[in-house]
Amino acid sequence: xxxxxxxxxxxxxxxxxxxxxxxxxxxxxxxxxxxxxxxxxxxxxxxxxxxxxxxxxxxxxxxxxxxxxxxxxxxxxxxxxxxxxxxxxxxxxxxxxxxxxxxxxxxxxxxxxxxxxxxxxxxxxxxxxxxxxxxxxxxxxxxxxxxxxxxxxxxxxxxxxxxxxxxxxxxxxxxxxxxxxxxxxxxxxxxxxxxxxxxxxxxxxxxxxxxxxxxxxxxxxxxxxxxxxxxxxxxxxxxxxxxxxxxxxxxxxxxxxxxxxxxxxxxxxxxxxxxxxxxxxxxxxxxxxxxxxxxxxxxxxxxxxxxxxxxxxxxxxxxxxxxxxxxxxxxxxxxxxxxxxxxxxxxxxxxxxxxxxxxxxxxxxxxxxxxxxxxxxxxxxxxxxxxxxxxxxxxxxxxxxxxxxxxxxxxxxxxxxxxxxxxxxxxxxxxxxxxxxxxxxxxxxxxxxxxxxxxx
Length: 456
Known about the structure:
- The chain has 14 helices and 18 strands.
- With 456 residues, it is of the alpha/beta class.
- It has one domain.
- Strands 1, 2, 3, 10, 11, 12, 14, 15 and 16 form a 9-stranded mixed β-sheet that branches.
- Helix 1 (17-28) packs across helix 3 and helix 9 (268-281) runs antiparallel to helix 10.
- The longest helix has 19 residues, at 287-305.
- The relative contact order is 0.13.
């Protein structure tokens, strides 16, 4: 079937239910309602004009690991079948003079071409090269890419100068009000580099230049759990806009008794792992460094096998959610040169890919859930509020969501998320009422059992 607004001569040889479902989702949201069903339908036209630049921010966290099934990769990464109609309709909005980019900044060891192949996005690249040459580009937003050796340690780190602009939220950062030490850490990065970006009064994020040159960001996150913030979604997905991961803050060193939130209690294995991590990742490259990095990874795996918490992967992490909200604010308020505007520079809208969701040990090793959901929202807070309810979670039990709309400076749009309405099959429902009837219960990550359980 050819949809009236479809612009390309190529037609699928068999029905495409995902394409049709994305269209229906956008139509149910009331986008360009008057022209729906006509060749002029332009659902993103109110968010970006002709000649504009759109970035479709996907969740391409990592390529398919050995032994990982197709459904597991589909639970982990945004699928091309959801991305395709979004790009088609974004092209409709920006016209021949505009440009659409898609991608994100995956983990430093991810193999970009493998990510594209595993998610089906490689075929999107080929399609648009043939039918919209020069107008659609897949973008690896990383400013630093590593080749991972046989022992799981990074080698041959490639730097891409100019991939980022530095955005300093300063005392407006949510990290500024956190209690405890200032020893911010990102696992498997040099802590000295992280502390150059994050400290008292300075909170600098190396945001992708591609994101900051865009006029509209359309996030397509996965509906899945997350070991550090409870759930992945549009807000946490904004970390994919950060070109240099060492500028992030995943946790603070040590247990709460020492002013950190890396793990709940000062048990010897975790204390040793924390110290070994600092030693292993702050040395110059060489054989000894590789040995220490391998030892640190091996000890971390052993601690996790025994049920212990590592790297801030528990409900008591008071750092990562703040960093994620900071990143979401940068996406909306940062100009191309990294300076901050008092009003939004670009819109950030969201279509969540929950066709196959992920529970358990997300974001990297989720167990597939055949949820069948697609959600559209006009801002990331509303999107994640719905996502949490759909997963069976109370949004106010997740600090990332409970605090996302707090504060006057660089706000994230929604002020009263409890008042959100959902349109479903032409009817309106209060969000909580709707998901009381239709929600699923996603099993949380082990450090988030009952979204507030104990961990060791």
